[in-house]
Amino acid sequence: MAEAPPLWAALFPGQGSQAVGMGRALASQYPEARDVFERADDVLQEPLSRLCFEGPAEQLRLTRNTQPALLTVATAAWQCVARRAPGPPAGAAGHSLGEYAALVAAGVLDFDDALRAARLRGEAMQDAVPVGEGSMAAVIGLSAQSVDELCAAVRRSGEVLVAANFNAPDQTVVAGHRDAVERLVEEAPAQGAKRAVLLEVSAPFHSPLMAPAGERLAAFLGQIPFADGQLPVIANVDARPVTDGEQARANLIRQVVAPVRWVDTMRTLADELRVGWALELGPGRVLAGLARRSGRKLRVLAGGDPDEIEAGLARLDEQSR
Description:
11 strands; 16% strand
């Protein structure tokens, strides 16, 4: 008996993957992608598509713009794949903001509602901490436990400094008050880190400092419908598969202040859902890079432009025969 082909998953990137020009080729080649961009412009009553396609970069980097823009590009890429794929993925996951795109793909969230939520999320996160008071940094070459211990060692009374993204076994992002983050960056090499770098972000995402943003977002999410999912979405907060709409709502609220457990997400996809490969539906190849470092036998292919999407569809077609 022939061995069954490996299952696939849909992955959606988060903030940091944006780039001017993202989605332009998709909208040019695929009518369904163009429809998504036109819908986003209509819902937000502004030319979000032009910002994605043409910039300027400094406007695209603003969190209030980045989050709905990434959601729109990811949803456009998903529509291109979903309407041509021979079958659905075994599951979906998104990194931070990408979880909204995963829930749209699973049928849990309506795109219009998700888009409005992404805009509010971006504004609320930006407003939660005054500019310059918070920061984030990536620590390379230390275990998650070592990073937690380092946070505790350099954190002073009254300061917040926590692990915010468990991205790979040897890469953890921290978030908190700027002074604390900068001290950690200075101390990390002496504790064995290969590298520790400040990130160009406007707020300390996924930390307790985001609590005011969580409250604003919870009020909005409580007013929109969450359906039960058509496929499991692996939640950032605990890396567990979710199809229940109410649980998905609660997870998004918790996600604002909780760390992104991406290492465990890869483990769940590979070990529990038996996923062998995935398409990264959106700009960039951040998730593909993290998958290579995850220690799991899960290959992630880029799927942010027409050539990449066609290559992914060809692989799906070949495996379905």
